[in-house]
Design a protein that fits this description.
The chain is an alpha/beta fold. The chain contains 15 helices and 17 strands. Bound molecules: zinc ion (2 copies).
Length: 433
């Protein structure tokens, strides 16, 4: 059974997350998007676990289901800040758990060390090695997946506070790591350039902080297994039953290029080298992005593809395509939502529209111009101005229409503000993808 899974999500109890994230909305928007399996997110949070336990039922297969049968796996993310090798390290790890009993034991162990109620993604001062020890003492079936590994601040391979290899991060425990999350700013092809990553499955998830369809499932991993925790775990471990990933163009990610957002400086890795990593406006060190960092650690040429590498598709969210064709400035505008639902009327999910729908069938619900853009998206032919220093990349559509003013434009169809925390305030807190 083909399952499109998004196993790195957050609840409304994580910082900088939409207050409207509840189980009902997660299911509703997953079905709309075409995501068939979600992580439950934030399982260590005392309030969120109450919601999980009251709205989901756990089966013997380690899968949690809503009353209408939508499946979730036990999942959380933890932030670790510690010293190793004489350097300050800050890394995020996604944790998948085999069952509620293991979740309870792990949460209990954490609660003896520190507080869990202030953030769905709690921060601890122990190391990645100690995390592995702690989990393995409860069950060998936990999975730790280093999250968005390349992001400068919280990636295990990040330029600011990461390591030069997964082995350096996990030391003798690295044999228990079977996969890494490539994050929004990198795709599998970039990761193929490091021979030391061949031993890890490359997985992609959204790290969503709101459930809107341009966040949830923007990246996902496709499994071909009968759904159970053990089968998902085995697929990640052996790569049998792991079909590949859905990616956005890595340029879309917030840390693809280098630069300084506040100084308006955007540099390619070549330009950063030319400027010796220093911002020409403020004279401070530039935030070095993912492309630079990959290049720094790569031992293979551009275009190298290792044997047995999984395929991936590169797509932009449908809302981004609609926004681009209309030439409007906001994703969460009435005009974009209205067109989104008009197109979706003819199809079972957004992924069907993006990946499978025929031109003829699309023409029954939308304009030739929109259909062309959807096809260009499917063929990865839409240019994206690279993201940098926390700013998202911007898809560029060569349209004549120009920017149309839209009122009430930061609201979605439910009238919920997509992200109540301004981007700048999220720095150091938000989704560093
Ligand atoms: Zn994270
Ligand atoms: Zn600067």
């Amino acid at each position: 059974m083909k399952i499109i899974a998004d196993l790195h999500i957050h609840s409304r109890y994580s910082r900088a997350c939409s207050k409207a994230i509840d189980i009902e909305n997660l299911e509703k928007y997953a079905r709309l998007k075409g995501v068939g399996l979600l992580g439950c997110g934030d399982f260590t949070h005392p309030e969120w676990i109450k919601e999980i336990n009251s709205k989901l039922t756990e089966g013997d297969d380690g899968v949690l289901r809503t009353s209408s049968g939508f499946p979730f796996l036990w999942q959380t993310e933890i932030s670790l800040m510690y010293k190793q090798g004489g350097k300050g390290r800050r890394v995020h790890h996604v944790i998948l758990a085999p069952d509620g009993e293991c979740v309870a034991q792990f949460t209990d162990a954490l609660s003896k060390i520190g507080r869990l109620d202030y953030d769905g993604r709690p921060i601890f001062g122990f190391s990645s090695v100690e995390l592995m020890d702690m989990l393995l003492s409860i069950s060998s079936k936990f999975m730790v997946i280093p999250a968005h590994v390349w992001t400068p601040y919280f990636g295990a391979l990040g330029s600011k506070s990461g390591f030069d290899s997964i082995e350096e991060c996990f030391l003798d425990k690295s044999k228990h790591i079977h996969a890494i999350e490539t994050g929004i700013s990198s795709d599998p092809a970039m990761n193929w350039r490091l021979s030391c990553l061949d031993k890890y499955a490359l997985v992609s998830f959204s790290d969503m902080h709101s459930f809107w369809p341009w966040r949830m499932g923007r990246e996902a991993t496709v499994f071909d297994v009968e759904l159970s925790y053990d089968n998902i775990r085995r697929a990640i471990k052996t790569r049998e039953g792991l079909s590949g990933t859905v990616e956005v163009k890595p340029d879309y990610g917030r840390y693809h290029f280098d630069g300084h957002a506040k100084c308006g400086v955007v540099f390619s890795p070549e330009e950063t080298i030319k400027h010796h990593g220093i911002c020409p406006v403020c004279g401070k060190a530039l935030t070095v992005g993912v492309l630079y960092r990959v290049e720094e650690l790569a031992d293979r040429p551009l275009g190298f593809r290792p044997d047995g590498a999984c395929d991936f598709s590169t797509l932009l969210p449908l809302s981004e395509i609609i926004k681009g064709v209309f030439g409007v400035s906001q994703l969460a505008s009435k005009r974009v939502w209205s067109e989104y639902y008009t197109i979706m009327k003819g199809f079972s999910s957004e992924f069907e529209v993006l990946m499978d729908a025929s031109r003829e069938k699309l023409l029954e619900v939308t304009s030739p111009k929109m259909v062309d853009a959807i096809m260009r998206g499917r063929n990865n032919e839409i240019y994206v101005k690279p993201g940098y220093d926390g700013e998202y990349g911007v898809p560029v559509f060569d349209e004549e229409e120009g920017d149309v003013e839209v009122k009430d434009d930061e609201k979605g169809d439910d009238g919920v503000v997509e992200n109540s925390v301004p981007l700048k305030k999220q720095k150091g807190l938000g989704d560093f993808c």
